[in-house]
């Protein structure tokens, strides 16, 4: 076993523990990093009875992209691995191309992974990618989270993506491939100075002469990841002391919140807004700080589909009704990403989940006794049939089948592996 193979095996054990997953996906572009990952994983998986599935995302942005995907398919077939090409046709020529392509890539891979029933999808990011990411974040004056760079594991769209090559450099992977006669494709966009990452990559040799090499930058990312994990653990403790769930919303203990360090206030607010609003992206730092100041001042606020409402001297963070007024879901399916209703077996057909809105609140006697401000109650979902509310979490006495689940784990739970 080569040093590279041993490093990968150690990384996978750290990610998955002693029991290897039954089915694992690997995203392969045809470049040296991901192609090496596919070959290394194939050798690792065989004695462990792990079934590997390979996917290539063809963004359709270059004339040769289809041929490159076909080349990956041929290489995967030679290893006896199933391969799928995932096509992206969403580029409209506007906005940040790299960001849109990255988001689309994760979405396509997540959908593919769910269809295949995969435990996770492995990505070919290396120590060099980690170092470049740290430098990119430095140019943006990033804080702890930014300098922690890429985590070894992160969930996106309900799928775990893992990066087992973060401790291995690109040069070592290319040497490993060349020694075994495997070729790879070099994407010309990797040398296009229009892109920020390329300019950062081109600056790396000069920085290395000053002692700031890829390995050192990756160690910085590791230190920052540990600091981030500590901050997130403290934030979880603070959440349990400062926040109280109420009918799927969150109520702040303003005095306890004010006593927290500013960094924890910001992190706690970011978690609360992400939990209630279900936004795919975090808000800008200035907007998040404005919400923190609103809690401290006892004033109303709004951010990413959430409202901060003052009610009976307490600060309530709730969903904005206009954001969910037209949202519908079938019983048994999640509504707004976090609410679940069980259907009434005796109610018949035509049931659906939707926000109460003014008409729904009018049908729920005593909804005010739930303790929510009206703005919050409007956006709480109910089980409907035609124009009638069958069940509501705001009702004083609802049948067992009408119970709801609005998990608060995103706010209160200790962080998992953040990389």
Verbal overview:
This protein is an alpha/beta fold and 419 residues long. It folds into three domains: 3-221, Rossmann fold (3-Layer(aba) Sandwich); 236-319; 321-406, no CATH class. It contains 16 helices and 16 strands. It has helices at residues 3-16, 32-45, 65-78, 97-116, 127-139, 144-147, 170-179, 196-208, 214-242, 254-258, 262-277, 285-297, 321-324, 357-363, 374-379, 409-412, and strands at residues 23-27, 51-58, 82-87, 121-122, 153-156, 159-162, 243-246, 249-252, 301-303, 306-311, 314-319, 340-341, 351-355, 381-385, 388-391, 404-405. The longest helix is centred in the middle third of the chain and has 29 residues, at 214-242.
Highlighted features:
six-stranded mixed beta sheet; alpha/beta; globular; Rossmann fold; 419 residues
Question: Termini distance?
Answer: 26 Å
Let me know the number of strands: 16
Order of the strands making up the biggest sheet: 3-2-1-4-6-5
Q: Kindly identify the CATH topology of the largest domain.
A: Rossmann fold
- The poorly predicted ranges are none
Please name the fourth-level CATH homologous superfamily of the largest domain: HUPs
If classified by CATH, what would the architecture of the largest domain be? 3-Layer(aba) Sandwich
β-sheet strand percentage: 15-25%
Range of helix content = 40-55%
What Rg is obtained from the alpha carbons, in whole angstroms? Answer: 25 Å
Shape: globular
Largest sheet: 6 strands, mixed
Tell me the number of helical segments per DSSP (H or I, 4 or more residues long): 16
Tell me, rounded to a whole number, the average pLDDT.
88
Number of domains: 3
CATH first level of the largest domain? Alpha Beta
Question: Which class do the helix and strand fractions yield?
Answer: alpha/beta
């Amino acid at each position: 076993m080569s040093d590279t193979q041993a490093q990968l095996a150690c990384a996978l054990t750290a990610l998955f523990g002693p029991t290897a997953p039954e089915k694992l996906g690997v995203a392969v572009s045809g470049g040296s990093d991901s192609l090496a990952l596919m070959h290394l994983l194939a050798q690792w998986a065989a004695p462990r009875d792990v079934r590997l599935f390979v996917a290539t995302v063809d963004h359709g942005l270059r004339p040769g992209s289809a041929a490159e995907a076909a080349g990956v398919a041929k290489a995967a077939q030679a290893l006896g691995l199933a391969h799928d090409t995932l096509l992206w046709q969403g580029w409209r020529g506007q906005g940040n191309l790299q960001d849109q392509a990255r988001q689309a890539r994760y979405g396509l891979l997540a959908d593919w992974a769910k269809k295949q029933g995969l435990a996770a999808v492995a990505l070919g990011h290396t120590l060099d990618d980690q170092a470049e990411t740290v430098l990119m974040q430095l140019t943006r004056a990033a804080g702890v989270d930014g300098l922690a760079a890429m985590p070894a594991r992160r969930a996106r769209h309900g799928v775990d993506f893992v990066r087992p090559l973060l401790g291995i450099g690109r040069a070592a992977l290319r040497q490993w491939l060349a020694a075994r006669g495997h070729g790879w494709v070099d994407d010309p966009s990797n040398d296009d100075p229009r892109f920020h990452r390329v300019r950062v990559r081109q600056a790396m040799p000069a920085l290395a002469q000053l002692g700031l090499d890829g390995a050192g930058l990756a160690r910085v990312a590791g230190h920052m990841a540990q600091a981030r994990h500590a901050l997130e653990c403290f934030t979880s403790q603070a959440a349990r002391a400062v926040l109280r769930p109420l009918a799927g919303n969150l109520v702040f203990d303003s005095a306890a919140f004010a006593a927290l360090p500013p960094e924890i206030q910001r992190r706690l607010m970011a978690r609360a807004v992400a939990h209630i609003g279900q936004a795919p992206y975090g808000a800008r730092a200035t907007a998040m700080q404005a919400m923190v100041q609103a809690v401290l001042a006892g004033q109303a606020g709004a951010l990413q589909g959430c409202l901060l409402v003052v009610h009976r001297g307490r600060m309530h963070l709730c969903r904005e009704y206009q954001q969910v007024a037209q949202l519908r879901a079938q019983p048994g399916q999640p509504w707004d990403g976090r609410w679940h209703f069980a259907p009434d077996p005796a109610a018949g057909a035509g049931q659906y989940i939707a926000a109460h809105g003014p008409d729904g609140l009018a049908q729920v006697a005593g909804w005010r006794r739930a303790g929510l401000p009206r703005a919050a109650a409007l956006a709480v979902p109910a089980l409907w049939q035609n124009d009638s509310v069958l069940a509501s979490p705001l009702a004083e006495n609802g049948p067992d089948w009408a119970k709801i689940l609005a998990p608060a784990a995103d706010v209160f739970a200790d962080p998992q592996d953040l990389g």
